[in-house]
Amino acid sequence: MHFNMKLGLTLFAIYLLFYCGFVFINTFSPQTMEQTPIEGVNVAILYGFALIVSAFALALIYGVFCRPEEEVNSTSDPVATTKGDV
Q1: What phi and psi, each to the nearest 5 degrees, are found at residue 78?
Q2: Which of 14, 47, 75, 83 has the fewest CB atoms inside 10 Å of its own CB, making it the most exposed?
């Protein structure tokens, strides 16, 4: 499996766990989401914004650490670099 795919799947799994936490709290403890810890803003809104910010942060992490396809092909498949020479 290529580095970019592993990185993407790992970051997706992290986000999925975070999102599942949101769903499970809403399902099994809705009164928790109604609490207002900051200036009358409830936990559901705060968690929702955290989901948006985390998705953006994970996308930035992927963008920074993702390798160009040429580099991935040259390090993992020596035949891939000679395909264009034929």
Answers
A1: -65, -25
A2: 83
